[in-house]
Amino acid sequence: MPAERAPLSDGVFRVCVVCTGNICRSPMAEVVLNDLVHRGGLDDRIAVSSAGTGDWHVGEKADPRTVESLERRGYTGDVHRARQFDPDWFTDLDLVVVLDRSHERVVRDWAQNDADRSKIRLLSSFDPEAAGLPDVPDPYYSTAAMFDEVLATIERACVALFAQLEPALRHTPAKHQTGA
């Protein structure tokens, strides 16, 4: 078991959004949440990344339908590169947001302790309109219209997530690192 590392102390709240291959849903959520962070003026307070539970798309761009769906809503998703979640990241993360219950099971299995497990939340749990629908559907084997529907679901949940994070992070003094 690796040695325990102290959490980062730079005052940045770190979020990683996790789906299956990191080419559809989690890149959408990463882009949307980063946009909310930027528009909220909290770029120095919240860092958002994404990853997948599987490794088969590592290094690839987001699915073209993901990029197209994001562009139709005014976002840019063309710089994304897929990566696989690494359990060692738990130490540096404050929140791990999963897109469905299968991701939740996998990431919980990777968690090494209760502190890690306490960081894992379903994206839909932030959305009061999700009403018993815990999973954000995977659009991979579907149509462009489904990508747009999934993006709308992700946008709604990300707005609700940001609404919970923003007040606490806006009113907590930032810690700035010094040195080279």
Automatic annotation (TrEMBL):
Pfam family, one: LMWPc
E.C. no: 3.1.3.48
InterPro entries: LMW_PTPase, Ptyr_pPase, Ptyr_pPase_sf, Tyr_phospatase_low_mol_wt
Ranges for domain Phosphotyrosine protein phosphatase I: 13-164
Origin: domain of life: Bacteria
SMART domains, sorted: LMWPc
Molecular-function annotations in GO: protein tyrosine phosphatase activity
UniProt entry keywords in alphabetical sequence: Hydrolase, Protein phosphatase
SUPFAM superfamilies: Phosphotyrosine protein phosphatases I
Record: active site: 19, 25, 138
This protein's record includes keyword Iron-sulfur: no
EC supergroup of this enzyme: hydrolase
Annotated Gene3D superfamilies: 3.40.50.2300
Family according to the record: Belongs to the low molecular weight phosphotyrosine protein phosphatase family.
Name of this chain's protein: protein-tyrosine-phosphatase
Organism: Subtercola vilae
